[in-house]
Amino acid sequence: MKWSGIFQITNDSTGADIMIRLFSLRRNFVCGNAIMGGVITLGQMPVHFPDIYDFSFEEFSDRGKIEWSYQLKIVKRYWFWDMFTFDKNLKKKAGKALLVAYFKE
């Protein structure tokens, strides 16, 4: 939620118009057959897994409680050369996917 930038997150809820309760990010597993291409080529062929994560939260305001639930599609790439990169922040990628899904509605 922090990485999406949808809400301004604060620790003090006394002046907040909306309070939210976050639920944990749940992963739905996909078929792993694509990894065989990477194994056969010793990691020289990049393999992409279109993982789907379920993200939900409740929004509390003076209007009542609203429940939000999203399926976030985040593609993970497995490749030998990726072990030398350090931009592997799942929370940042999930935040960007949530931002797109939230404003799509």
If you had to describe this structure to a student in words, what would you say it looks like?
It is a single chain. This protein has 105 residues and is α+β, with helices and mostly antiparallel strands. The chain has one domain (19-104). It is 20% helix and 35% strand. It has two helices and four strands; from the N terminus they run E-E-H-E-E-H. Strands 1, 2, 3 and 4 form a four-stranded antiparallel β-sheet that branches. The radius of gyration is 18 Å and the shape is elongated. The model has no long low-confidence stretch (mean pLDDT 81).
- Return the structural class: alpha+beta
- Major β-sheet annotation: 4 strands, antiparallel
Q: How many β-strand stretches?
A: 4
Ranges where pLDDT stays below 50 over 5 or more residues in a row are none
Quickly count the helices. Answer: 2
Per-chain topology:
Layout: E1 19-22, E2 26-28, H1 35-40, E3 47-61, E4 64-78, H2 90-104
Antiparallel strand pairs: 1-3, 2-3, 3-4
Keywords:
elongated, 2 helices, 105 residues, alpha+beta, 4-stranded antiparallel β-sheet
Short description:
The chain is α+β, with helices and mostly antiparallel strands and 105 residues long. The chain has one domain (19-104). 20% of the residues lie in helices and 35% in strands.
